[in-house]
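> @MW can you paste both from yesterday?
MW: sure, first one:
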Amino acid sequence: MNITIITVGKLKEKYLKQGIDEYLKRLSAYAKVDIIELPDEKAPETLSDIEVLQIKEKEGERILGKISQDAHVIALAIKGRMKSSEELADTFDKLATYGRSKVAFVIGGSLGLSKEVMQRADEALSFSRMTFPHQLMRLILVEQVYRAFRINRGEPYHK
């Protein structure tokens, strides 16, 4: 399986980079994983609704430009469907069964994802009703993808 994680914003924190690198190394036995980091739009603290929309649209254009046409797109969104680790593993299993070997996860910037990106998504996934920094979501996502592959292979993993 080929997994692409398309994310807005630069990862600066060394501890997050180390965690992500560790899971990417572990994942290499199961899948090819690429992380595409796109620049975020600079924005002042206070924005009008129109400015928020414009920023999300600009970031959205960049995101859509990186999604391959035949990819199954999973957008990370607070209002998405929550799944257990086993359900995420089942999603991968079903995609593989039906010959969908390309999966693209999309993590938006601090303002979220544009309407166009959400429309392109095949599903919206929520890890929690809580809000997490998008940089931290990268680490959580790669850990859960790794866990899903372990589950599908019947290999032990911490609960």
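MW: second:
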Amino acid sequence: MTLRSYKGHLPKVCINTYVDESAVLIGDISIGHDSSIWPLVAARGDVNYIKIGDRTNVQDGAILHVTRPTPDNSAGYPLIIGDDVTIGHQAMLHGCHLGNRILVGMSAIIMDNVTVEDDVIIGGGSLVPPGKTLKSGFLYVGSPVKQARALTQDEIDFLLVSANNYVKLKDEYLLED
């Protein structure tokens, strides 16, 4: 894996976390237990920090970045991703806050200052514009994203199934190394 320091910050990765050798992690990044970072992920914690929780998977080609502090926004926008989150292939997350048990569909884009509450599914190809809050328990789709409907209990249960499937898969990959 490629872990690169930036201004004295080296990414911190738990020992039981899988980071593919083609992924690039730069700067102030922390990744929790049983998480996985898959091929060609680019995560840049250079002008702010990235925090990824436990049992979270970031799939192939995803891009993770942050927004620097400014005079109008002294904290900037870090990227905070909770526990049991599945981030689909080629998703782009920028300076947003994701809660727990979320599925971000393939090629979805989530912009600055977005808050995604727990137990949410964001459809593939969706665009979540800056400053939006996605409420818990719903499916969101479209560009710009709109609340489509309440999640079924099966869909809510699937959020943990998805996260746990990736924990098993990363364990298999770790055995190969």
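> thanks! The mean pLDDT is 97.
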